[in-house]
Amino acid sequence: MRAPGDETADGSTVRRAAVARAPVDVGHHGAMSDTTVRPARTDDVPRIHALVHELAAYEREPDSCTVTVDQLRTALFGDAPALFAHVAVVDDDVVGTAIWFLNYSTWDGAHGIYLEDLFVRPDVRGRGAGRDLLATLARLCAARGYSRLTWSVLDWNAPSIAFYESLGARPMDGWSTYRLSGPALAALGAPPTP
Question: Are 24 and 1 in contact (CB under 8 A)?
Answer without folding.
Answer: no
